[in-house]
Amino acid sequence: MVLASLLATPVMARPAATLEDLRALAAQKSWAELLERAEDLPPAKRSDTWRTLVTEAATAEVEAATAPDDKDPFAVARKARALGQRYEFLAKAPGFSSARDARGLKELERCLESEKSGCVDTYRELARDAGSETMLQAARLVKRSHFAYIAMPLFAAAVREGKAAGACKDEALAEAVLAALDLPSTDARAGDARKVGFEWCWSALGARLKAATVGASSYFLTNTCVPMRARKALTELQDDLCEDAGL
Question: Phi and psi (nearest 5°) for 71?
Fold first, then answer.
């Protein structure tokens, strides 16, 4: 009878958190609970103060997570990505963005050191909101650990559509472009290299690309002859080389 009575007793729902409750949780540095309960407040009551508290909690959660995860090197980056999707205003919060980008780079480095597969693809997926400088740092990390062309997608992301023009002068980027142009033209990394070399960074890389045409592989010529000719950048000798290759 006692058990039946206990089972019949209704479970009291936890009252919805108020802004004062969130302030108290922030004072206690109970960041996980604050993020768990932040959405208790209806949209009409989510003020600038509410956004500040959420930003502080999200930033602290990303910064405080120090323990490595052997199964998933990107565990914290995944958390940061999920928080950014849950609270879109975090993307414009410098403190959170800095913590997110720093954590992503650290976890990319750990993944590369552990020689796990898929490090670059996973990082690209999780770092979609990262700034150009962060992507450039990530590309350099990858290039130090792998063949230069492996880093090509990250270099492309760093300078995409003319962003971070100064990055076009980066020596590591130039080496990645030249290496990726030696891949089959259907390889996505060769496509990234063509965009970087002939569209976004031509003024910085044009001379290197022209010089590399002499003695180049058939893959390199296939990737470069047409865009070189479009820019009227081929010498007579180079044009002959392209024609001999059927390009």
Answer: -75, -35
Residues 65 and 164: their CA atoms lie apart, in Å, by 30
Say how many domains are in the chain: 2
| Dihedral angle of Cα 44, 58, 133, 187, to the nearest 10 degrees | -90
**Residue 22 resides in a domain:** yes
pTM of the model: 0.83
Amino acid occupying residue 75 = A
pLDDT digits (tens, 9 = 90+) for 179-189: 999 999 999 99
Rounded CA separation 191/143 (Å): 18
- DSSP annotation of 166: G
Same domain, 164 and 126: no
Q: Dihedral (C-alpha) 180, 182, 185, 191: value to the nearest 10 degrees?
A: 20
The tens digit of pLDDT for each residue in 12-62 reads 567 888 999 999 999 999 999 999 999 999 999 999 999 999 999 999 999
Query: 222 with 185: CB under 8 angstroms?
Result: yes
- Rounded Cα distance, 27 and 81, in Å: 25
Whether residue 9 lies inside any domain: the answer is no
Question: What is the rounded CA–CA span in Å between residue 234 and residue 238?
Answer: 5
The SS3 assignment for 202 reads helix
